[in-house]
Design goal:
4 helices, mainly alpha, disordered C terminus
Length: 89
């Protein structure tokens, strides 16, 4: 599996766990909707480190987790507390 596919799968899974839509992720991260849609589908050609960081902060996770092929988001309950201050959003 390619990194783009792993990232896309983890992005979709984490968004589902948090019940986020693309519009929610856009609002929280500041990343363009078209970019988020391409990343979610795996159609991206590249991604900047700053974009990964913005998405990870919005998703309350660590950037490396978005590239982890074996990431189990359902078992990762403490992730909702990561990046404190986002719990009320």
């Amino acid at each position: 599996m390619y990194l783009a596919e792993i990232f896309a799968r983890n992005l979709r899974m984490r968004m589902a766990v948090l019940d986020y839509k693309i519009s929610d992720l856009h609002r929280l991260s500041g990343v363009a909707v078209t970019t988020l849609m391409a990343l979610r589908s795996g159609d991206n050609k590249g991604i900047q480190f700053l974009t990964i960081e913005k998405i990870a902060v919005a998703l309350k996770c660590n950037p490396w987790q978005l590239f982890d092929e074996d990431m189990n988001w359902t078992a990762y309950k403490w992730a909702n507390k990561y990046q404190g201050g986002h719990d009320n959003e």
